[in-house]
Design goal:
about 450 residues, mainly alpha, single chain
């Protein structure tokens, strides 16, 4: 990479990453669309209750994958190709280990987890039916989500996007066949998701195999303790970025059950689908620019890192405003799309409108956190990621719901994002002051 081709490199990495992350979010949305229309409100609530378990698998995979990808790019920036190859082997071994052990452990304690998440009655039966299939095939989503960042940081951005696209197309076709035509309900939706993730895993592994992995010595696949610690230290933030929406779902589901019962959970399931798509698209900007940031961090080009941040910042804000405007304009069609019953239709539309206010602030937080972990500032990144579910969001939910009941629950998330984005800008401000004259136009 050279400075004179930076502009081309920026868009080469960021646009495919945004698209790939958006496709990743569509997996659960597609299940929700088909199940909501074919089975009904209870099934929609069941997927929403079980979704956090699925997210833990995805978060672990993404944490390891991005941790390995950042480390790989950092070594490449320092022209240390041997350690770069060792990082790929170590990351692959960690992903396989996690893909076997985590689903096995979760499968053994699924009933307890579902009760803890608030499932009961028909919702519990549906949630168990869905998540059991996901866990049985749990290795596939771990490999699919974890190998994709490695492929992207290897310079194969288009290939990484094609892998995600093939999985999404497979998921749509199988959902239609299994849920609508064969009437397999939640079992069919979960099966479609697992097979689609298998397509992503196999295609991504194939590209990596022919690009790099087949040439690696076997010893590179025996994890190095130093590399494991480095990968996990970096990966803890992207792990949290993926997991936090799951914690948000758990906390909000509890409050919804308290103030509105299963109907409120169904409303939030629609909101969470739309919110997840926006979060992933905006996260795609940070994930996309991350290989460049890691490379130039290794090369000690701090002024270029700062310029990349500014360019990404304005792109993130612009995309967030477009997303918010889209929800405001199409809130009614979005609500109808999920097939919710008329009794909760208006509440669902209002909840979507309120949640859309949070998008610009999500963009700021996600990007700033990604910049921190890509440039070795893991403590700042982890603070941004974990302070939200541990302190800020619970406080907002408790205070606002006690005053405004169900409406307060919908307002809590935007309020938490405003506070969090303010903290992000405060943490980033020393770097902004340190490089005040870097022109944005150089990119």
């Amino acid at each position: 990479m050279r400075k004179e081709i930076m502009k081309k490199q920026f868009w080469k990495y960021v646009l495919p990453s945004m698209f790939a992350m958006l496709l990743s979010g569509f997996y659960s949305i597609i299940d929700g669309l088909f199940v909501g229309n074919a089975v009904g409100n209870t099934a929609l609530a069941a997927i929403n209750i079980a979704y956090p378990i699925q997210v833990v698998l995805n978060a672990t995979a993404i944490g390891i994958g991005i941790g390995g990808a950042v480390t790989m790019s950092w070594f490449r920036g320092k022209n240390q190709e041997k350690y770069c190859d060792q990082t790929i082997g170590t990351s692959f071994s960690l992903l396989v280990s996690a893909g076997i052990l985590l689903p096995l452990v979760f499968y053994m304690i699924t009933p307890q987890l579902l009760h803890l998440l608030g499932a009961s009655g028909e919702v519990y039966i549906g949630a168990y039916e869905y998540i059991a299939v996901i866990l049985i095939g749990g290795l596939l989503p771990v490999l699919g989500n974890g190998l994709n960042p490695l492929l992207r940081n290897h310079g194969k951005t288009i290939h990484a996007t094609l892998c995600m696209s093939s999985g999404l197309i497979t998921n749509i076709v199988l959902d239609y066949v299994l849920v609508f035509k064969m009437q397999m309900g939640l079992h069919g939706a979960a099966l479609a998701t697992i097979i689609a993730q298998g397509v992503v895993a196999c295609s991504t592994l194939s590209f990596l195999w022919y690009s790099n992995i087949r040439h690696l010595p076997i010893r590179y696949f025996f994890p190095s303790k130093k590399l494991i610690l480095r990968i996990l230290r970096i990966g803890i933030s992207p792990f949290g970025q993926t997991l936090v929406p799951c914690i948000v779902i758990i906390l909000t589901n509890w409050m919804c059950l308290k103030y509105g019962g299963n109907d409120a959970v169904t409303v939030f399931s629609v909101v969470s689908y739309v919110l997840a798509s926006a979060q992933l698209l905006l996260q795609g900007i940070g994930d996309g620019v991350q290989p460049l940031l890691s490379f130039y961090h290794g090369a000690k080009e701090e002024h270029i890192i700062h310029a990349l941040y500014k360019k990404s910042f304005f792109l993130s804000i612009g995309c967030a405003i477009l997303l918010s405007s889209g929800v405001f304009l199409f809130a009614t069609p979005l609500t109808a799309l999920f097939g919710v019953s008329t009794s909760i239709y208006e509440e669902c539309r209002i909840a979507l409108l309120i949640t859309a206010l949070s998008f610009p602030f999500i963009g700021i937080t996600r990007l700033t956190s990604a910049v921190f972990y890509a440039t070795g500032k893991s403590k700042n990144s982890s603070l941004l990621v974990y302070i939200e579910p541990c302190i800020i969001l619970p406080a907002c939910l408790i205070i606002l719901s006690s005053t405004f009941a169900l409406t307060g629950i919908w307002v809590a998330y935007p309020a938490a994002q405003i506070i969090l984005s303010s903290i992000a800008l405060i943490l980033k401000s020393p770097a902004l002051v340190a490089h005040p004259i870097t022109p944005i136009t150089q990119l």
